[in-house]
Amino acid sequence: MQNKELLAHINGCLRGDDKSQRWVFERYYRLMFGVCLRYVSDKDATQDVVQEGFLKIFLSIHKYSSKGSFEGWMRRIMVNTSIDAIRSRKATGLVLGVEESFDSFVEEDVHISYDEDDEMNFTVHDVQAAMAKLSPMYRMVFNLHVFDNLAHKEISDELGISVGTSKSNLAKARRNLRSILVNMKKTNHV
Q1: Distance CA 79, CA 53 (A)
Q2: Which domains does the chain have, with CATH numbers?
Q3: Is the whole model's pTM more than 0.85, yes or no?
Q4: Furthest-apart CA pair in the chain: how many Å?
Q5: How many angstroms separate the Cα of 72 from the Cα of each of 32, 59, 69?
Q6: Which of the residues 25, 58, 87, 104 has the least number of beta carbons within 10 Å of its own beta carbon?
Q7: What is the rounded distance in angstroms from the CA atom of residue 12 to the CA atom of residue 23?
Q8: Per-residue pLDDT tens over the stretch 90-140
Q9: Phi then psi for 44, rounded to 5 degrees?
Q10: What does the buried/exposed string (b/e) look like for 130-144 if buried means 16 or more CB atoms within 10 Å of the residue's CB?
Q11: Could you tell me if 77 and 56 are in contact, meaning their C-beta atoms sit under 8 angstroms apart?
C-alpha cells in the first residue's frame, strides 16, 4: 500500500505539478542513481541517465497502475534507460548478440582455493569498484540476473541476445568479478 503523501505527489505529477515532480525527484534520486550506477559505471554518464529516466517517469506516470510498488516501477524505467544509454553510446566492447571476449583482462593464472577465498572479506566499495571493471555486456547481464532477478530468457528478450549467450556472459562475469576482487585483495595485502 502506498502512503498518502506519495499518492498525493503521484497525483500531482499526473497533473504536471512542478512541486510534486521535485518531491519525487528529491526523494528517489539517490536510490535511482545507485540503480543506474550498477549499469553505467561513469558517474557523469550516470547522472545523465538518471535525468533522462526521471523525464521518462514524469512523461509516462499515467501508465503507473498503483497496483505494484511505485519504486519498483521507477526502477524498471531506470534499468531500461541505462540499457538504452549503453546501446546508444556504443560503449567500448559492447556488441549485443555476440558473446564478449574479456579474457585479455583476466589473468588466467589466478587459481583460487576455497580456503583462500573464505579468508577474504570484501567491502561494498570493493565490489562496486570491481563491477565497474567488467565490460558493459557482462555488467548488464550480471545486474539483470543478480540484482533485478531476471531469468535468462527475460535477459535474452531484454538485450536481444540468445539464452546461451546470457548464461555464458553471466558465468564469465562472475568469474571475472571474482578474479578482479582476488587480485585487488592480493595487491592491497602485498
Answers
A1: 9
A2: 4-89 (1.10.1740.10), 114-189 (1.10.10.10)
A3: no
A4: 60
A5: 10, 17, 5
A6: 104
A7: 10
A8: 544 444 433 443 333 333 333 444 444 445 677 878 888 888 888 888 999
A9: -65, -45
A10: bbebbbbbbbbbbbb
A11: yes
Chain position carrying cell 569498484: 129
Cα distances (angstroms) measured from residue 163 to each of 100, 121, 138, 189? 14, 33, 14, 39
Dihedral angle, C-alpha 64, 66, 67, 69, nearest 10 °:
80
The tens digit of pLDDT for each residue in 41-72 reads: 788 889 999 999 999 999 999 999 888 899 99
Which cell is 182 given? 582476488
